[in-house]
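S1.2 Input.
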Amino acid sequence: MSLPVNSFLRGPRWWSAVLLLAAAAAITLLPRPEAELKTPRFSAIPVALGTLRAEDVPIEERMVKAANVDHYLNRVYRGPDGDAGLYVGYYRSQRAGDSVHSPKNCLPGGGWQAVRAGRIALPLANGARPQVNLYLVENAGERIVVLYWYQSHGEITASEYAAKLHTMRDAILYRRTDTALVRITVPIEGGEDEATRKALDFSALVAPYLNQALPQ
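S1.3 Output.
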């Protein structure tokens, strides 16, 4: 099974689009130069997590350019209980019109279609339970559970509009507009609930290492 690389679905309501454009314009017009940030240290994310072992999967250069991503990690973790895909796309600056390539705003070239969409709480080791996006996608009878969220110096956000407002806040307070898109994919081999549980467990397992890997 080939896990989808980038993608998904519905457009925003008009008021959300206006809010997003207003936030983007405010970020672009801020006069101060951005702070110097370290490059993401993806080596901090272990290739071995529990019983899972990772294989790095390069993404075609044309897809990297289309996403306008500065740095990325794309891995498939394989284990006796099934596979889990991890994609992290890091955007250093969003002032020059380079914004996060949201999974729900485009359909994957491989034909994956969204069957269901919602949100779910992600239980973390520190007791926090941030909301993340939960999708079920299908292609030629194969189904995959997808979790994704936006992450900026330790803050997890499900909404792309809230993430953009956080970016505007960070631009004003900290002179930074960087953010990361994190996506977890798990094939449905038993049942949807089982795959969702595996995706949540894997997300909670990798979350502390994401904090180490991304600029704080």
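S1.4 Remarks. The longest helix spans residues 192-213.
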